[in-house]
Structure formats: C-alpha cells, structure tokens
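Supplementary Text 2. Reproducibility record for the structural model of the 210-residue chain.

All settings were left at their defaults, and a single model was retained for analysis rather than an ensemble. We include the record here because the model underlies the residue-level annotations in Supplementary Table 4.
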Amino acid sequence: MSRLALNKAELQRQRRALRDYRQFLPSLDLKRRQLLAERAKARAALAAARQQYERQVADAGRKLPMLADERVGLDGLVRVAGLQLREENLLGVRLPVLDGVDVAVADYSFLGRPHWTEPLVERLREALLHGYAVGVATERLARLERAVVKITQRVNLFEKVLIPQAEEHVRRIQLHLSDAERAAVVRAKIAKQRATLRSAGGASGGESGR
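Retained model, structure tokens:
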C-alpha cells in the first residue's frame, strides 16, 4: 500500500475522490434496491411456475390414472423439438426469456393406441412447457441472485471502505497541514524575536561605544 502524501495536492485529490464516491453511491444503492425488487418478483414467478407444473402433473395423474400402468409404452411419444429462447437486459443483467416450446409428437395409429392417447399427448405437451418454464425461472432467479450479491458488495465497498478511507485521509492531511502551518507561524515569530533582539543588541553596542 502506497504511503499517503501529506500535502495540498494530495488533499485536493482525496477531496475529489470523496466527492465522487458520495455522488456515485446513491445511484449504486438505487440499482441495488431495484435489483432486490426484481429478485423478489423472480422468486414469486418461480414459485408460481413450480406450482403450475406440480398442478399439471397432479391433474394428469388424477384424470389419467392408467399412466401408472408400466405396460403402457409412452417412450418417444412426445419430445421437445426446439425451444424459443431469448435474453432481455434488465438493469444490466442478461436474463433468459422463454417464448415457447416446440413439441414433436410421434406418429401413432388411432387404432393401435388407447383412446386416452390424444388427451395424454396434450397433457404431456403442457407438462413439458411448464417444466421448461420452471427451468428458465430458476435460471433468472440465479442470475439476479448473483447480481444482487455483486452490487451489494460494491455498495459495501463504497460505504464501509472507500468513503471512510477518503474521509480519514482528508482528516489526516488537514491535521498535518494545520500543524505545519502553526509550526511555521511559531518559527516565524521566533525568528522575528531573534531578529529584534539582535537589532536591539546592535543598537545598544553602538551607543555604549560613544
């Protein structure tokens, strides 16, 4: 760590730094509070997505109890063909957005499959959609959590380190300069007194020699 220069140039530099820190901190703290609000929304959205997914699965289990029969082959009936994903910039954080899920349904014979295959396909389609919605909501929350941690660290850096440090530096430099100024005044007075005494002594010597 470099040693603090106790001079007027450093005092001005520390004052400018302190002013900049104090000006920047409110906007940084505002962003932190905004991110906290967005994180709360993301948590609520994730809870809602999970609830919707669990409701979808439970509803399918109630209305299609035959799914419990392991002899019914469902492998490959429905699969994800593609995801419609994009990203949005929210307060400087890149967040995923799910616009849709492309689902492919395998060809099957209406006569070769049970009568409940068609409603099953629709429910599987919905379950896939809600399942991916939960995944995207989870990722959104995770990114916001990281952003909140990062900006909170920055706010703490300004509040607890940079600003107090700059204040202490300004105080130390001002104290040093004030002491130096008082010392200079004292030295000037002493020098003046000595000059006066020498002048007086010289005058006295001149008079006695007459």
